[in-house]
Amino acid sequence: MTHDQNVLLPWVHASRLFELWQEAKALGLASANVQLLTDMIACPGGDFCALANARSLPIAEAITQRYQDLDELDDIGEIDLHISGCINSCGHHHSGHIGILGVDKDGKEWYQVTLGGSDGSDLSGAAAAGKVIGPSFSAAEVPDVIEAVLGTYRDLRESGENFQNTVRRTGLDPFKEAAKQARHKDAETAAA
Ligand code: SF4
To answer: Given ligand 1 and candidates 40, 47, 86, 92, which is best to mutate, with the most ligand atoms within 8 Å of its CB?
Structure first.
């Protein structure tokens, strides 16, 4: 298992690759999304972890369902999205280009969204913790917020510029505004 929750099969003979791919595909394990948005890191969260403040897996699933079009994923490009269900940070949300952290407020699940985190890789640039883009969002709001953030990136990017570099160049303000606009009008908000 790799740290980004993929399965690596080493030493496969070239002559067996196609057969392996066919069998992996039959099992639903041949998604061509490595390093794209839906190849995310998510901790077990509240579905399986007693320490959680919020669930991670339904958030991951909702974002995955929203982004099923491989052409759209390719257009967004390589990007790290990480989700942790509490501040123990097993999903390394702080080092995700987009990070989602589950927080508890008055016994309810909320999610902080951070942008610009980096694990120090060539893709991500110098190691840095992501910065919060506003008060916490409800679970229902999170996929809309992610869509608003990515839409802002696609609007503002220069030719060939990846998400991380666009965030660095423009700063967080346009992304904060887009996330604010994506907030559900009738939703209770939390200032976590
Ligand atoms: S980040 Fe929190 S909720 Fe997620 S696995 Fe770690 S301790 Fe559990």
So the answer is: 86
Mean pLDDT by 10 residues, the chain (192 residues): 92 97 94 94 98 98 97 97 98 97 95 97 94 96 98 98 97 98 75 50
How far away, in angstroms, is 170 Cα from ligand 1 center? 32
Q: Which residue carries 């883009």 as its tokens?
A: 133
Q: Which domain holds residue 160?
A: 35-182
Residue among 26, 27, 148, 167 at smallest CA distance from 97: 167
What CATH number does the domain containing 153 carry? 3.30.413.10
What residues line ligand 1, using a CB cutoff of 6 Å? 43-45, 49, 51-52, 84-86, 88-91
Look at the chain and report how many structural domains it folds into: 1
Please check whether residue 152 lies inside any domain of the structure.
Answer: yes
